[in-house]
């Protein structure tokens, strides 16, 4: 072994710290088991709604009944609704047009052609609601505003929080590595676990959703990726500032992201999930996915949402590194 390999190296020490922190994150703790339990429950709900055939409605189109015999229609479309509750003004307009065609006085061959057109148009209309409903209920409401921040807490607050609770942070601070580099190393070590849980969980949920879920996976995974980066940086910063960062992060996830993120007005712009959803809206715009009331929801463009998520990630890392470098951490024995 030559002298260059045995000489102290800050870069080699930083890489070893990343690897050591990555291994420590692999030790499952309570929050991870809760996250896995939520993942299993969510997949079960999606599977039931995808593969359990609903009771047919009285006005269900004949073509859709025949199609349901050959493949799983599931409960994501409006075909099983006893009364068309609508999915925005576009659906209501098409439904009125369909009813108008039905009541016209067609006779003879024209009536047969009208019935065929009505069945095909009605089947396409009802099936076209499947992807918007899956996106609204599962992706936007369940995953983006609830599961994504909760799952990010599972690993992001443990980068420094576990070291402080186990009183091992003093050993880390005595290493010949600058404190900002230690803070960054902890973030690099926890990020793969956050991405594996969030992206992996999103993949499983989408695959359980059948064809609508596969389309959602193709369109929405970049937004999940950038949302994970922003949430991880925010909660990692909390770990550097607060002693019990997990509790504060859970309160933030429940109240600010889940509740305030769905409120009308400008307050929702304080939540990361708002910009994650706006990025999803931009990606799926060609498929007719948009807020039901854009004048109330007031989304931003996809480029703006991406810049905000990237900016939150960078700002949280910079602020967290500064705080971590200046804090004395007197609570460590």
Report on this model:
This protein is an all-alpha fold. The protein has two domains: 11-48 and 131-326, no CATH class; 52-86 and 88-127, no CATH class. Helices cover 73% and strands 0% of the residues. The chain contains 15 helices and no strands. The chain has helices spanning 3-6, 10-25, 30-51, 62-70, 89-102, 109-127, 130-156, 158-165, 169-173, 179-208, 210-241, 245-259, 272-283, 294-297, 302-326. It starts with a helix and ends in a 7-residue tail after the last helix. The relative contact order is 0.12. Mean pLDDT is 76; it is low at 57-71, 86-97 and 117-126.
Topology of this protein?
Blueprint: H1 3-6, H2 10-25, H3 30-51, H4 62-70, H5 89-102, H6 109-127, H7 130-156, H8 158-165, H9 169-173, H10 179-208, H11 210-241, H12 245-259, H13 272-283, H14 294-297, H15 302-326
Helix pairs in contact: 2-10, 3-7, 3-10, 5-6, 7-10, 7-11, 7-12, 7-13, 10-11, 10-15, 11-12, 11-13, 11-15, 13-15
Structural class: mainly alpha
Mean of residue pLDDT? 76
Taken as a percent bin, the fraction of beta residues is under 5%
Number of helices: 15
Extract low-pLDDT stretches.
57-71, 86-97, 117-126
Distance between the termini: 38 Å
Whole-number count of domains: 2
Overall, the morphology is globular
Question: How many β-strands, per DSSP?
Answer: 0
Cα-atom radius of gyration: 25 Å
Largest sheet: none
What series of H and E elements makes up the topology? Answer: HHHHHHHHHHHHHHH
Give the % helix: over 70%
């Amino acid at each position: 072994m030559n002298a260059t390999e045995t000489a102290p190296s800050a870069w080699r020490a930083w890489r070893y710290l990343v690897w050591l922190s990555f291994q420590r994150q692999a030790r499952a703790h309570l929050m991870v088991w809760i996250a896995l339990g939520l993942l299993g429950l969510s997949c079960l709900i999606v599977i039931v709604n995808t593969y359990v055939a609903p009771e047919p409605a009285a006005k269900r189109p004949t073509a859709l009944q025949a199609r349901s015999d050959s493949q799983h229609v599931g409960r994501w479309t409006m075909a099983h609704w006893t009364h068309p509750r609508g999915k925005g003004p576009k659906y209501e307009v098409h439904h009125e047009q369909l009813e108008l065609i039905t009541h016209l006085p067609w006779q003879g061959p024209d009536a047969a052609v009208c019935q065929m057109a009505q069945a095909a148009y009605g089947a396409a209309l009802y099936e076209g609601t499947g992807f918007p409903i899956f996106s609204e209920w599962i992706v936007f409401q369940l995953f983006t505003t609830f599961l994504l921040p909760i799952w990010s807490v599972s690993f992001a607050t443990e980068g420094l929080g576990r070291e402080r609770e186990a009183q091992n942070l003093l050993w880390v601070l005595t290493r010949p590595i600058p404190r900002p580099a230690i803070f960054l190393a902890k973030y690099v070590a926890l990020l793969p676990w956050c991405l594996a849980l969030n992206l992996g969980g999103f993949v499983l949920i989408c695959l359980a959703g059948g064809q609508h879920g596969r389309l959602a996976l193709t369109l929405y995974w970049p937004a999940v990726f950038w949302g994970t980066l922003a949430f991880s940086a925010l909660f990692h910063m909390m770990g550097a500032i607060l002693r019990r960062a997990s509790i504060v992060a859970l309160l933030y996830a429940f109240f600010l992201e889940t509740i305030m993120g769905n409120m009308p007005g400008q307050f929702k712009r304080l939540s990361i999930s708002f910009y994650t959803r706006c990025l999803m809206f931009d990606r799926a715009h060609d498929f007719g996915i948009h807020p039901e009331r854009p004048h109330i929801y007031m989304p931003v463009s996809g480029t703006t949402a991406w810049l905000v998520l990237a900016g939150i990630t960078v700002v949280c890392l910079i602020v967290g590194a500064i705080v971590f470098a200046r804090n004395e951490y007197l609570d460590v024995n």
